[in-house]
Amino acid sequence: MLEAGKYFLKKQRLSAGVSDEELIHIAVKSMGLDELGPFDPKQRIIEYQLSENQQQLIDMNLVAFANETASESPAPGGGSISAYVGALGVSLGTMVANLSSSKKGWEDKWEEFSEWAEKGQAYKKQLLHLVDEDTRAFNGIMEAFKLPKSTDEEKAARKAAIQTATRKAIEIPFQVMETAFNSMTVMKAMVEKGNPNSITDAGVGALCARTAVIGAHMNVRINAGGFTDKIFLEEILGKAAKIESDAMKMEKEIIDYINKVIAG
Predict the structure, then answer these.
(1) pLDDT tens, 73-97?
(2) Which of 10, 12, 27, 215 could connect to 4 by a Cys-Cys bridge, CB 3.0–4.6 Å?
(3) What's phi and psi for 153, nearest 5 deg?
């Protein structure tokens, strides 16, 4: 259904870098799947059926998500919020790509901007996935610490479970860092080549992405404190430090460019 939606949009020389929901809507309308009766994707598409009973943070509305974050529950915490901020950032970059694709007088550039929008949608989807993955990783550590420790065997099993859960709690925010940093290429391209009327939107997207990188890096580092595999830590902490440095450098390049444009 997603590929069908992209196919029909591209036939119309329109950007295919839209949400999954919009792609499915386009596919349904273009193939006439709702001509004989309503076509409910949540009832007719198996992937939606399989995930129907899984409660996810990203399914909440904005107010509910904010309220859950502000509650006394420790999750969602900084890691999940970093992923969500990153998703918002690349969403802005993707918006500029879509606006640029449909800009009057830029008809010969629609395909280039459509490709950027599709890249942005892919980054957004991954970051939204990581919102819940980070909370699951945190919950995994909490569950591991609750394991029994009365006997030597139980202590050994508990220790191993804690280490396994801790490694995941390091890897997930690291994935947030990688994805948010990579998404900055969308914002940089849109600042330099996109619709000039939306240059500051792409700039705000870059600010969000940098925040996501730094926030996720904090979580990588604090969770690393309880992990015993020093070889793994040396490698991932080195990579994480470089990603943060590169993200801050790219953010500066983007903001400096925007300030020059605004100053004329």
Answers:
(1) 887 899 999 999 999 999 999 999 9
(2) 27
(3) -65, -45
5 and 105 housed in the same domain: no
Spatial CA neighbour of 172 closest among 248, 238, 223? 223
Q: Two tokens at 1?
A: 């259904």
The single-letter DSSP state of residue 177 is: H
Residues of the domain holding 5: 1-54
15 lies in some domain: yes
- pLDDT tens string 105-148: 998 999 999 999 999 999 999 999 999 999 999 999 999 999 99
- Residue 7 structure tokens: 């196919």
- Hey, what are 189's tokens? 């391209």
* HSE-up (13 A, CA, CB side) for residue 108: 1
Cis bond upstream, residue 76 (ω within 30): yes
CB 120 within 8 A of CB 19: no
d(CA 253, CA 264): 17
66: in domain: no
Q: Share the mean pLDDT of the chain.
A: 90
89 domain residue, yes or no: yes
Distance CA 98, CA 227 (A): 43
